[in-house]
Every structure is written in C-alpha cells, then in structure tokens.
Design a protein that fits this description.
The protein is an alpha+beta fold. It is built from 9 helices and 7 strands, in the order ααααββαββαββααβα. It has 2 domains: 88 residues, Winged helix-like DNA-binding domain superfamily/Winged helix DNA-binding domain (Arc Repressor Mutant, subunit A, Orthogonal Bundle), CATH 1.10.10; 114 residues, Gyrase A, domain 2.
Length: 214
Amino acid sequence: MSDIERLLKVTEERYPGPRSSYTQAHLLLAFLTIGETPNIGRQVLARSVGLGEGAIRTLLRKLKSEGLVKVSRRGSSLTDSGIRTYQRVKNSLPNLVFLGSTGLTVGRKQIAILVRGAAKNVKHGIEQRDAAVRGGAAGATTYVIKGTKFQIPGGSKDCENDFPTNAWRLLRDELGPRDGDAIIICGSDDELSSKIGALSAALTLLVQRPVVRD
C-alpha cells in the first residue's frame, strides 16, 4: 500500500460521528495545504479547500487520530510522521501549475498536475476526465511523456509540434517532466474546482481502487 493509499484510509467510515461530506481529493488537498502552510488556521484551511468549518473539524480530527496532524491554538501542522508522509506524497505529486486559459483542455481556469512515473497507468485519459468532472471541474486532458515528448494516448505523438503554445515551455520549466510521467490539465470556471478536479484525476493513477465520494 502506497503512502497516498494509507493517507486516504482516513476517509473510511471507521470513526464515530456523521458521515464525511468531503472527497478524497479534498482530504489530499487539505493535507498538502497543511504541509505547505504550517500552523494554518481552521478558517483559512476551510477556504483553501472549499469546505465548511464543520467538515474541516472532522477532517482534522481524523488526521490527528492517525498521528499525521497536530492541532493547537496556533493552528494545524504536520507531525513528524505527517512530514515524512507529506515528503513521500510530494515525490509522486511534486507540483501544481496554474495555466489560465489555454487550448490544451476545457475551462477558463486551468491547472496542470504532474504524476511522477504514472504514464504506464494511463489508458485513454477517459478515467481522469470523468474523475475530474465528478470533482466539479469542466473536464481534463491527460498527457504522457514518452522520451522527451508530450503525447496524447491514442492521439498526437508530439503535442508541442501539433499544438504549438507557450504553455508547453511553462509545463517543462515548472513541472520538470521526465520520461514515463503523466501530466493532467484540468479546467473549470474557478481555480479551486480545477484544483480539486486535478487531484481527483491524479488519484485514479495513484490508487488501485476507484476514487469515490464518501
């Protein structure tokens, strides 16, 4: 079981209290946000993840029970165990890049996420698109890196040549793609929906079970 799969077990219904109102993508975004912003307050975290404070309290309680997060008057931070998990998760999902509007997928507010070494798990990109839409995005397009080229499964073998745009250089500079990586570009009318959609899509390449709403 990967570190991401262990983290996502927090969403399982094995804790007392009401049924969770957030998705696995919300959990992952919250965990990454806490890792990037130590001592983050609950209200700020709620706005960053797009959840109500009640859902955030439940999420933090579960992460604390797993020994991943500590909560104090100063805010929420990762424990030593949480930091180690965060670092390993970031090895698979090193960065998100905001693109704005491009012709590489649908939606005015687009975000690209790199999934390290995941090209082998991409079939036709439909699974990632569907997961992004379930997460609230308008859609998503999955690209794989073969050698040094961006490719579309079952489509273009050299996207930079076939669909010229400055966005390819930004993706190379900001994400540092390698042979065998996958990049998902997700779009919506707002950045948060694109971010949740991108993480939902990425999870289809990182876990062996389908990503569903709790």
